[in-house]
Specification:
The chain has helices at residues 15-26, 44-54, 95-99, 102-106, 120-136, 182-189, 238-241; strands at residues 2-7, 31-36, 63-67, 77-83, 86-91, 109-113, 143-144, 157-158, 163-170, 176-181, 195-197, 203-204, 219-223, 228-233, 255-259. The protein is an alpha+beta fold. Strands 8, 9, 10, 11, 12, 13, 14 and 15 form an eight-stranded antiparallel sheet that branches. A seven-stranded mixed sheet has the order 2-1-3-5-4-6-7, with helices on both faces. The model has no long low-confidence stretch (mean pLDDT 89).
């Protein structure tokens, strides 16, 4: 059984190691793959973007655990859903509806409700017990449940002046991913010239395929493997070019404007 683990726990202490030990104790022979433990704190938009772009790369039957702010909701719940042969376990915090097709999200199962005191180790133990039931092929101890309604991943805001895109993610190379997909971009631009301004006075006015399509130190935009628009700088920091703060917890509040 392959289990992927995505969280906002960080790797400075042993929390992730304890979580993985709990899963390994309960699911014999499990292989745990770390997707990331550096999701910005409680930022399920970022987590949803990361999980949606990577889960289909794994074999069918993989279980994907998203332990991002599991107790942030006033009435915490654990839910499970299935899509395209993959299983997903998450808090009922809006993350899964942003990852799954509506039909899969609407047939999610409620597995557990939580009351104080809230302990992450208990949450992981419940996830491990649920996965073990999947492995054994037994009846899942859960009921049909519609995932709580939260805002989906934010959509680009089209105005008469420009299209305002929200930042979803900034990677370790300081490339910035915004919430406009390739098909949306070309529908909005409709073959017309466009420009993206940076704080350093440079303008991006064409779509590149590779980082090296522009000179070293120059900004560019391209569509990444998940189909979202990425702002980058060849051997540089798009985050710096766009004037965004260094704190990852503030990055989701930043905008990129596309002028047509």
């Amino acid at each position: 059984m392959i289990i992927t683990l995505l969280s906002d726990l960080g790797t400075k202490d042993a929390t992730v190691a304890i979580s993985k030990a709990t899963l390994l104790r309960l699911v014999a022979g499990a292989t745990i793959v770390d997707l990331s433990h550096h999701v910005a704190r409680a930022n399920w938009h970022e987590a949803a973007y990361m999980l949606r772009g990577v889960y289909s790369s794994f074999p069918l039957g993989t279980v994907h655990i998203a332990a991002v702010a599991p107790f942030a909701d006033p009435h915490p719940r654990m839910v499970m859903a299935e899509q395209n042969g993959h299983f997903f376990i998450s808090a009922d915090n809006g993350l899964l509806p942003a990852v799954l097709q509506p039909a899969a999200a609407s047939t999610a199962r409620l597995y557990q409700r939580y009351t104080k005191p809230y302990l992450l180790q208990n949450w992981m133990a419940d996830a491990g017990t649920l996965i073990n039931a999947l492995v054994q092929g037994g009846e899942l101890p859960s009921t049909g449940f519609s995932i709580a309604t939260y805002p989906a991943l934010p959509a680009p805001q089209v105005t008469p002046i420009n299209t305002v895109c929200r930042v979803l993610y900034a990677d370790r190379y300081q490339n910035v991913v915004v919430n406009i997909r390739e098909e949306e971009f070309y529908e909005i631009t409709n073959g017309k010239p466009f420009r993206i301004k940076t704080m350093k006075g440079r303008t991006i006015n064409s779509v590149s395929r590779h980082y090296t399509d522009v000179a070293t130190g120059e900004p560019l935009c391209r569509f990444n493997r998940s189909g979202y628009l990425e702002i980058a700088v060849n051997h540089g920091s798009a985050r710096e070019f766009l004037g965004f703060p260094a704190d990852d917890n503030d990055i989701e509040y930043q905008n990129v404007r596309i002028y047509v």
